[in-house]
User: Fold this.
Amino acid sequence: MTGPDPGDRKASASDPAVLKLGGSVVTEKDAPETVAEGHLARAARALGAAGTGGDRGLVVVHGGGSFGHHHASAHGVSRTSGTRDPAAVREVHAAMRRLNGAVVDALAAEGVPAVPVAPLSVAARADDGALALPLESTRTALGEGFVPVLHGDVVAHEGRGATIISGDELVVALARGLAADRVGLCSAVPGVLDEDGEGVETIREFEAVADAVGASDATDVTGGMAAKVEELLALDVPASIFDLDSLPAFLAGERAGTRIE
Amino acid sequence: MTGPDPGDRKASASDPAVLKLGGSVVTEKDAPETVAEGHLARAARALGAAGTGGDRGLVVVHGGGSFGHHHASAHGVSRTSGTRDPAAVREVHAAMRRLNGAVVDALAAEGVPAVPVAPLSVAARADDGALALPLESTRTALGEGFVPVLHGDVVAHEGRGATIISGDELVVALARGLAADRVGLCSAVPGVLDEDGEGVETIREFEAVADAVGASDATDVTGGMAAKVEELLALDVPASIFDLDSLPAFLAGERAGTRIE
Assistant:
């Protein structure tokens, strides 16, 4: 058998990278349930070329884009507003599973050892909204050389039926729980832009960019750029926001887009 | 909104029933990837009529039958023999997801508030084969009135890539972890049969039936009747093995088939 020995794999799996492929990257946001085939294939090629998996531990998360948000909105479900309708839960989840299947297939086609992980099956929210995301499955899969691929989803929420969990929220929970060494958000924009539309190189506090990122310009039940920046600032590890052009650089451990420390 | 109030639901969710629908019940075991539509519909009608979910907490597990075993055998994967081939993991898992989709849809059509739970996403095995099955998602879904539907699957296994988790193994882990008040295995036979082919009413120790259940007559990577009986005897709660004729009785809390104490 070729490949790293189990000892190497375990050592590296303790500090993987967490990469989010934004819903605006992998789907056509304005067309219901439409995969952005070209963008997705480009992202998959970058991951395949970087040799992710094995001793280069990576967890991928993708957003819902035109798969999840459409159904979530139709049923009035958000991160805080729940549903007790099992058909609504199944519908939102099934749409996200279809997108996840497309992402996993695209990654597999480029040799990435991708395996699907469905948040509905593993995560839950307590009464106060606090997320429980047990990581036995993801951590073990990583340790065995696989690349777990999670997605925005609907999860059971104590007292509210089921609510939405966003890809961004998963990224933060995974980065903390897996002690990731870096986090990347591959989005439709090359980074955080200031009020003049120029890319910001580094963000160390929210106030510095609050005016520029104060509102998201797309309907998104899971929050826009402001929420992303605030959540990433709260992490102990560096995070980067970049677009597809800079994905190879991020995977190579180089500077990409806006760095949030 | 009709239905029990949240207080009732929470109280009952702490002692749900765990029901396994055997692979030999929900699939045509001899035909690859073929759902036993008639049997599945009959089981779903029984669950729908019993008013499961809500204050009558129920977790459903189904076996792999002709969906899982076929692919697992083709890739040489069992409970102890693993695979490091991500395509094998995806293939076994996808087959089981297709069966799970059919089961969830059939239950939903009869008004059962079924939601899917995929073991690959939540479970893992340690080096020594010990199963970790965190129950936050299943317990919260139960508490909110849903009926989680799990299935035999492939899971990451420390040091071996990925191995099979059987429906029977899930039943035992769920019964323990959720403090279930009773366990039912709905199989193709009306109960455990003695050496004369007569149904055994009650089993309290393995030796009493060892000769009769010593071997399973079907190829099954996850163990036959002997393994089932041994695992159920180790539980603190009563378990029953019965066929579709007795499913309504089990759901009503009555005696069904062979009782294992």
Confidence is low (pLDDT under 50) at residues 1-13, 216-221 of chain A. The interface with chain B takes residues 1, 6, 53, 84, 86-87, 89-90, 93, 97, 104, 108, 113-125, 132, 134, 136-137, 139-141, 143-146, 155-162 of chain A (CB under 8 Å). Chain A has eleven helices and twelve strands.
